[in-house]
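REQUEST
  id: r-88c1
  op: predict_structure
  target: Major facilitator superfamily (MFS) profile domain-containing protein
  payload:
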Amino acid sequence: LIAWRTADHPSIGRRWTLCGAYMLSAVGLLTMALLRNFGGGYPIAFSALTIISKCGAAAAFQLSYIYPTELFPAAIRTLALGVGNVPGRLAGILAPQAANVPSLWLELSLGVLALLV
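RESPONSE
  id: r-88c1
  status: 200
  body:
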């Protein structure tokens, strides 16, 4: 709901809302990697960062359908949306695999997912 309200706000707009959603997700994932590596046992903070990262990724995914329709003409819109969805689909494929990675490499998997976002 916050992304919807800020995307239609005249001073913020769709571009900054989309960038903010991507940054929210990436910063949440990187913070989870650092917290796990240096912080240790903070399960509540880790869960909160997981929810924050998921909300950022979901907002960016929804806004990625709205914003390109204003940028591209109708002739190349489907190609542009297809190319734009590739990183989101790759992250969706790789995200469940992060749970199967041994605890030593969890930081690496969270870092890779943050770079994909």
